[in-house]
Design goal:
By secondary structure, the protein is of the alpha+beta class. Helix content is 17%, strand content 50%. A hairpin with a 5-residue loop joins strand 9 and strand 10.
C-alpha cells in the first residue's frame, strides 16, 4: 500500500516492454542507456519497496482514480535500457515512464502541453490492453539534484506484459485446467486478472478481483 498525501509529490508509472513497436509514437525518445548510466542508476537506488512483485494485475480505472486524487501528467519519455541479465550489455529492454505531479507542484513545458492529450490516450490504451506484474517503491524526491526532506516520489513498475487481445482485436483465451492439468469446460475463456491496482482511501494498493 502506498499513501497519496501532501508528502507524495510525484507518481511515476514505469512500463517495461520487450517489443519497441509497443512504445507510443508520441512519447519523446532519450538516448540508449550506457553501461555507466546503468551503474549509476543501480548505485543510486534508495527506495523502499511498498508493493511486492505481483502478477496478473489489471490497470482498468487506475488512471482515472489517480487524476481524481489530484495528480496530473507532466511528462513522458522512453529510454532503451540495458538488460541486467546480460553482463555484456548487448541485450536491452524498453522503459516508458509517465510522470504525474500533485496539483500544487505541476509545471508543464509548452512542448508537452501540445501532446499531452494524445499521450494520455495512448497511456489509457496501454492500461486497457494488458495485465502486468506490479511492484512499487517509495523513493526520495529530488529537485535540481538535491534531495528534499519529507517529500517522496512513488514509482509503480509494470513488467511482464500479458496482452488481453490478439493483433486482430479478439480476446486472448485460455483453457481452464483441473489439478491434473486436464482441460475443463466446453471452450477456452478470456484471460482474467487476479488483482486490480486501485486507489482506496488515498492509498495505492492491490485489490483482489
Amino acid at each position: 500500500m502506498v499513501a497519496l498525501n501532501g508528502s507524495t509529490v510525484l507518481v511515476a508509472l514505469q512500463f517495461s516492454f520487450s517489443n519497441p513497436n509497443a512504445i507510443p509514437a508520441t512519447v519523446k525518445r532519450q538516448d540508449r542507456e550506457t553501461p555507466e548510466e546503468r551503474m549509476k542508476r543501480k548505485n543510486n537506488a534508495s527506495g523502499v519497496r511498498v508493493i511486492e512483485p505481483t502478477g496478473k494485475c489489471s490497470l482498468l480505472g487506475f488512471l482515472e482514480e489517480l487524476e481524481a486524487a489530484e495528480y496530473e501528467m507532466i511528462d513522458a519519455f522512453y529510454k532503451e535500457r540495458i538488460d541486467a541479465k546480460d553482463p555484456y550489455g548487448r541485450r536491452s529492454y524498453h522503459m516508458v515512464r509517465f510522470l504525474f505531479a500533485r496539483h500544487e507542484f505541476v509545471e508543464l513545458s509548452d512542448e508537452f502541453k501540445k501532446v499531452r492529450d494524445i499521450i494520455r490516450a495512448e497511456l489509457q490504451s496501454i492500461c486497457e490492453a494488458a495485465m502486468w506484474r506490479v511492484r512499487s517503491f517509495s523513493n526520495p524526491f529530488y529537485k535540481n539534484g538535491k534531495e528534499i526532506p519529507d517529500l517522496r516520489t512513488v514509482s509503480i513498475n509494470l513488467e511482464a506484459r500479458q496482452p488481453l487481445f490478439r493483433p486482430c482485436g479478439q480476446p486472448v483465451t485460455v483453457w481452464q485446467k483441473d489439478k491434473n492439468g486436464e482441460r475443463v469446460g466446453d471452450a477456452p475463456l478470456a484471460l482474467k486478472a487476479d488483482y486490480c491496482l486501485r486507489i482506496v482511501n488515498d492509498a495505492v494498493q492491490l485489490v483482489t478481483v
